[in-house]
Amino acid sequence: MAPAPELKLVPTPGQTIGPFYGYALPYDKGHELIHPSNPNAVRLHGVITDGQGTPIPDSMLEIWQADHQGRVPTQDGSLLRDGYTFTGWGRVAVDNVGHYTFTTVNPGATEAVKAPFIMLTVFARGLLNRLFTRIYLPEDTEALANDPLLSALPEERRKTLIATREQDGSLRFDIRLQGEDETVFLTYPRES
């Protein structure tokens, strides 16, 4: 008996997620990675826009990050927030003018040669696949200059990955899907 031919499995294509996700995927306190009264709490917010600068009201964002000491959390509890456990993950639907807000902490660097960052994923109507990017903190200019990812980008593109620190300590990070000052989005190699 001849051996069966080897089948090669390929990933199925992505598909758009919305705008129907609004009632099912957001959950209570999904935007609060840490309680706002915590002394380490920081507000991360911004607006997501299309290529013409028009806000995208029916998108959803997720963030993943290390804690303030650079440790990647492994605690359970991301979907049931207790107000005390930092799990490093959050999800929020944007409002009707494309604005989003998370309450989190300033992440620490996970490795000595890398600048601290927050991983951000964008889901939106019309996107067949989610988009990945990073949000870097603006303060440590030496770490930013030496970060391997940022160093690989042209100087004018790096700024699209660096948040702005506001006077109250909040981080402002606007996301532009296309056009002038388009946010740098990342791709990850898939297994072939």
Spell out the key features of this protein:
five-stranded mixed beta sheet, four-stranded antiparallel beta sheet, 3 helices, 192 residues, mainly beta
Topology, pairings included?
Blueprint: E1 42-49, E2 59-65, E3 89-93, E4 99-104, E5 117-124, E6 131-136, H1 141-146, H2 148-151, H3 155-158, E7 164-165, E8 171-172, E9 175-176
Parallel strand pairs: 1-8, 1-9
Antiparallel strand pairs: 1-4, 2-3, 2-5, 5-6, 7-8
Q: What helical percentage do the residues reach? A: under 10%
* Mean pLDDT over the full residue set: 88
Number of DSSP-assigned strands: 9
Q: What order do the SSEs take from the amino end to the carboxyl end, as H and E?
A: EEEEEEHHHEEE
Assembly form of the protein: single chain
Report low-confidence residues grouped into runs of 5 or more.
none
Shape: globular
* Beta-strand fraction estimate: 15-25%
Instruction: Give the count of helical stretches.
Output: 3
Distance between the ends: 29 Å
Largest sheet: number of strands, sense, barrel closure = 5 strands, mixed
Instruction: Compute the CA-based radius of gyration.
Output: 18 Å
Structural classification: mainly beta
